[in-house]
Amino acid sequence: MPVMTIDAAAQHVGQEVTLRGWLRSRRDSGKLHFLTLRDGTGDMQAVVSKKAVGDDQFALSASLTQESSLIVTGQLRQDHRAPGGYELDVRSLEALQIAGPFPIQPKEHGVGFLMEHRHLWLRSHRQHAILRIRHEIIRACRNFFDERGFVLVDAPIFTPNACEGTTTLFQTQYFDETAYLTQSGQLYSEATAAAFGKVYCFGPTFRAEKSKTRRHLMEFWMVEPEVAFAQLADMMDLAEEFLAAIVQQVLETRRTELTTLERDISKLERVVPPFPRLTYEEAVGILRKKNNPTQMGDDFGGDEETILSQEFDRPVIIHRYPAALKAFYMQPDDHRPDLALCMDVLAPEGYGEIIGGGQRIHTLELLRTRLQEHRLPEEAFKWYLDLREFGSVPHAGFGMGIERAVAWICGLEHVRETIPFPRMLYKLYP
Length: 430
Hints:
Elements: E1 3-4, E2 16-29, E3 32-38, E4 43-49, H1 50-63, E5 69-78, E6 86-97, H2 111-116, H3 118-121, H4 125-147, E7 151-152, E8 158-159, E9 171-174, E10 177-181, H5 186-196, E11 198-206, E12 219-228, H6 232-253, H7 255-260, H8 265-269, E13 277-279, H9 280-289, H10 302-309, E14 316-319, E15 342-347, E16 352-360, H11 364-373, H12 382-389, E17 395-401, H13 402-410
Parallel strand pairs: 1-2, 4-6, 7-11, 13-14
Antiparallel strand pairs: 2-3, 2-5, 3-4, 5-6, 8-10, 9-10, 11-12, 12-17, 14-15, 15-16, 16-17
Helix pairs in contact: 4-6, 4-13
């Protein structure tokens, strides 16, 4: 007798099958119990008839509580009125565990309560849909780079130096040395790009930013491509193609989940190249027209990113920010050395920056000068300087935070729902 998963029901119509899962809900009607079961792949209604299973099994069915785990066996039939279009006529059932009173009920709960019970909240339809889409976005990222000849070369989590200052880094003890949790795999990806040409890394990154906003987590996942012989224009093209491919794959494979989230799919269908491209100066001009107080030389925060992104129906690329706003490794513009060859990609609908990157300094002398200007210890970056001494070429890359991409594509208000167990300011449990 086959053990069936709910998502494979179409292959087993008319067969006697075994289904293993958890009780989402039960509805009683005389000598019938209607059990809604979930198994991680979907929901299905199972009908328990007293006549079919006998008194003892019917009594067992009546004792089942929400989230009780069980195994049921019965005949599978198609029924367009049932959830998912299929229904199981139960012949026998076995309860593995009768659950206690489930804390999360079909009523309004506060966010604080739900976050305290995050380990149980994950079982809801909404959270299930979000994390399925997250899975699809990650798969789309890997597919995109793998199909284009990129090599996955992951960067270390522990780093020996604070590459951009220690103010937003988590410090830890590494035996007799001080280490930091990585903010980005970029520097190491530059080294592997010089070995393989086109690489990407994918993994957790950490920012000790005391930011309590809907866009910030202390721990998040980032995918970061790096390409030898590439310049800023190449990265803008790559980022544009990359985002369009991700959204297209989600639209093709996760329509059901997007519907569960009540996502306006028409807005995602507009995410096709070409994307608008603005210089930093042009972006400041738009902000000024919108009565935003931003001045030339100011960095953009969440409010500014929201204003700019709401001007367009697809992602917008903003490039050539003042070099003073960017990291020490950014290549200056040959025609305007006060500007960096960098870019940010802002998601539409007010979701702000989801990609940041640009062209890296590739000459030894300039990189050494930048380290000195930023008061960073040259000895700690000797390996990074070596990359400019042995076969240096122009190169560029970017990073995309998975959680912000998930929030945008799912249409979520806050990034806390985009990862199974979010790490937020002052929130480490569960």
